[in-house]
Each structure stands twice: as structure tokens, then as C-alpha cells.
Amino acid sequence: MSRFKVGIQLRPQHCTMDQFRQAWVAADELGVDTIWTWDHFYPLFGEPDGPHYECWTVLGAMAATTKHAQIGALVTCNSYRNPDLLADMARTTNEISGGRTILGVGAGWFERDYEEYGYEFGTAPDRLRALKAALPRIKERLAKLNPAAPDLPIMIGGSGEKVTLRLVAEYAQLWNAFGPPENFRHKSAVLDEWCAKLGRDPKEIDRTVLINNPELDNVDAYVEAGATHIILGGDAPFDLEPLQRLLKLARG
Q1: How far is Cα of residue 161 from the mean position of the Cα atoms in its chain?
Q2: What pTM was computed for the model?
Q3: Where residue 35 falls among pLDDT bands split at 50, 70, 90?
Q4: What does the CA dihedral 241, 4, 105, 96 come to, rounded to 10 degrees?
Q5: Where in the sequence is the domain holding 102, given as residue range(s)?
Q6: What is the pLDDT confidence band of residue 252, given thresholds at 50, 70 and 90?
Q7: Selection from 68, 26, 47, 32 nearest residue 231 by Cα
Q8: Residue 80 Cα to chain centre, angstroms
Q9: CATH classification of the domain holding 154
Q10: In sequence order, which residues have a C-beta less than 8 Å from that of residue 46 and are 6 or more positions away?
Q11: How many domains does the chain have?
């Protein structure tokens, strides 16, 4: 039995679609637990106007061409789509994948996306309030759809202690945060506190952390800090040797 789950975030930037597709198929064949992409409209680093692909279109293709791993966005920006539409998109992708889709969602932060695509950026509290309002709508729509998907897992990304972690305790089956391990340990403890206040079993929440290749030597520290699911960031040309190393670490 693995010590922790293994995921990879394949970033949809600075690559061809053939490179991207070959990478997610290869990761699936390696036996990863989850495969993720991100929800942006422009590269986050490297050439700012380099090649880039839209998240949920990619996830539909990923759903149809993988067989084993769960798939999702790490994470969808709540601001970019009507919450009911997002629920339907996730439900439909879940049907294509045979029940392997996770709806990852967060409040959003990348200002260029907002400006270029005509969304109101507002303030961080504005975006958090919008996420708080969207989550019950998403849950309600998932239950209303035909076929319905009331149990489709939700991931919430973020570590804000007053709002975001409370929303995780209320709505999520997965939570994603960042390091270093001391930070992850602290945020995980705050999440436990919210679970206690709201009557939620904290063990129901899969605790994921996104790391990059240099942090592979620190995996044990993340597990000791409470991470149950390690997700490795991957960039073109998508060398999967570090992912193979992470899989070996997971399997002991």
C-alpha cells in the first residue's frame, strides 16, 4: 500500500498539444493517482505570450484518453464561469471519464487573465465572497443535473485561515496548499480546527500539496506535516523521470 497518493500537474504552457497529450497518457500509464492541469489563459512563467491551452477543453480530452487516474484542474478559477455552468462542465467531463473527475476550484488571483478576458478583478475579499456564494450553487446544480453527480468530489485550493479553510471544511473532499512543510503543517492544523467547529471528520479531506522537482528530497517532511497526496509540477518538455521517482517514494 502506498504511503501517500501521487499526482502530477501538467502545465498547459510552452508546448504543443501533441506533447501535452503524450505526457498525460504516459503519466496515466505509470499509475499515478491523479493528473491535473491549471486554469489560466496565459503562461504564468517563461515567455508571457507563449503557447497556452484552455483548461476545461483539455480536461475533456484528458477524460477521453486516460483510463486510470482521476483528473482535474488545480484549480479552476471561480470567476471565469457561471457556477451552474461549471458544475455542468464538471459533471459532463466526469461522465466522459467514467467517474474519474475532481472539480478543483479556487477564488482566482492572476490579474492578467481577468483584464485580457474582461472579468472584473476586484479585491481578494470580493473574489472569496464570490467563491463562498458559488459553492452551494455548484452542489445544488450537481444534484439537479440529469444524470446527476451529487457525489462528484470537490477540491478547494487556498490557505486563508478565516474563509478558505472554513469553506474546505464545509464543502471539499480535497484541499490543496503549498509549502514549506512548516506552513503546510500549520494550515492543516487550522483546517482541523474548522472541521471540529463544523462537525466534519478531518480524515474525510484528502490533503494535497503541490511541489516542484527540487522539493522531492523533502517529501517525507510533507507527509509528516499531514500531506496525504503529493502533486508534482511538470513543465514542457514533460520529463517524467521525477514523477517516477516520486512514485517509488510513495510505494516505499
Answers
A1: 19
A2: 0.97
A3: very high
A4: 70
A5: 5-250
A6: confident
A7: 32
A8: 16
A9: 3.20.20.30
A10: 13, 14
A11: 1
Tell me, what amino acid is at 144? K
- 12, 18, 21, 26 alpha-carbon torsion, rounded to 10°: -120
- The Cα 134–Cα 138 span in angstroms is 6
pLDDT of residue 1: 62
Span 156-202, pLDDT tens digits: 999 999 999 999 999 999 999 999 999 999 999 999 999 999 999 99
Distance CA 206, CA 156 (A): 11
Residue with cell 503529493: 230
DSSP string of 25-59, one letter each residue: HHHHHHT-SEEEE---SS-SSSSTTS-B--HHHHH
d(C-alpha 30, C-alpha 46), whole Å: 28
Question: In terms of C-beta density within 10 A (0-12 exposed, 13-18 middle, 19 or more buried), how is residue 1 classed?
Answer: exposed
3-state secondary structure of 6: strand
Closest C-alpha among 12, 20, 71 to residue 240: 20
Closest CA to 171 of 189, 186, 151: 151
Closest to 100 measured CA to CA, from 54, 34, 165: 34
By the 8 A CB rule, do 113 and 40 touch?
yes
